[in-house]
Specification:
This protein is of the alpha/beta class. It is built from 14 helices and eight strands. The mean pLDDT is 94.
């Protein structure tokens, strides 16, 4: 297990507990009570730290190297029923955007999401989860296919943003994202969106227009990352913690502003501490959302979706 800077007190107690167990195994000394005391202190420390996380600490947890990525969720949710589909039929297959058909609890879904890598080689292969225009066009092709066959769409968001390179702009990055938003708002099948990691800018919104949008507890969703916001406003990344607080990007902030529908709770310490529980909870929320939407007519579905997004940003003085 890798630990973040604010998790160091936990790391120290875990190491103490491990040493205590080893001493008990390698000698005749009874360390049962000592281990219980350390374990009790460990649980108290975990609760104290994780129940009072700052916005920046939640951003750090969303990027934790042990955190499950989109394909981890897909494998857990669909098992061996997932059939990946490739390419936008226009340029090439974008490895940062995955998509395909799979069954969750017996119900077929068209699943689309950004995939990051877990080491240097796979991060380069997946372009660090930053999709090019062909990735968004692949996503749209699969969503239109789902619409044709009456299959609900599930999108899993985890990206630091759409790829900002020159070649992406030359191939129409802005248009590709805008086209997805335009088409998703009137797609004739239910769309369920789950933010499983980072949800940055238009890169996230390009597959994030849903009838039900859920955020996992330790994720963030914002027009810009804290580091980029800090570099623009203060010409330095040193103010990223202050920027994170000001951006109101946590799941609690987003729910309060009615920009997402619900928060998916995570195990204490984050989804990476207990993956199976996290996967099961995500599945429950997906099926809950689907069951709320499955009996709506096409007209009702689209009308509710348009009304939902039309109301965002309204305020009274």
């Amino acid at each position: 297990m890798e630990y973040l800077d604010f998790e160091l007190p936990i790391k120290e107690l875990v190491e103490q507990l491990d040493k205590c167990v080893v001493i008990g195994q390698e000698s005749d000394v009874d360390v049962t009570n000592t281990c219980k005391q350390i374990n009790k202190k460990l649980e108290e420390t975990k609760r104290s730290i994780y129940k009072n996380l700052t916005a920046w600490q939640r951003v750090q947890l969303s990027r934790h190297p042990n955190r499950p990525y989109t394909m981890d969720h897909v494998r857990a949710l669909c098992g061996d029923t997932f059939l990946e589909l490739f390419g936008d039929r226009g340029f090439k297959d974008d490895k940062a955007m995955i998509g395909g058909l799979g069954k969750i609890d017996g119900q077929s879904f068209m699943i689309v999401g950004q995939q990051k890598g877990f080491n240097t080689k796979t991060r380069q292969f997946r372009n660090f989860g930053m999709a090019n225009p062909e990735g968004y066009r692949k996503a749209l092709r699969l969503m239109k296919m789902a619409e044709k066959f009456g299959i609900p769409v599930l999108t899993l968001v985890d990206t630091p943003g759409a790829y900002p390179g020159l070649e992406a702009e030359e191939r129409g990055q802005g248009e590709a994202i805008a086209r997805n938003i335009f088409e998703m708002i009137r797609l004739k099948v239910p769309i369920i969106t789950v933010i499983v990691g980072e949800g940055a800018s238009g890169g996230a919104l390009g597959i994030g227009v849903g009838d039900r949008v859920y955020m996992m507890e330790n994720t963030w969703y914002s027009v810009i990352s804290p580091e980029s916001c800090s570099s623009i406003l203060w010409k330095s990344w040193e103010y990223k913690e202050q920027a994170a607080e000001a951006l109101k990007l946590t799941s609690t902030d987003m729910k309060k502003q009615k920009l997402v529908d619900d928060i998916i709770p995570e195990p204490l310490g984050g989804a990476h501490y207990d993956r199976e529980t996290a996967f099961k909870t995500v599945e429950q929320y997906i099926m809950k959302g689907f069951n709320e939407l499955k009996d709506l007519s096409t007209d009702e579905l689209i009308a509710q979706r348009m009304d939902k997004y039309s109301k965002m940003g309204e305020y009274k003085e």
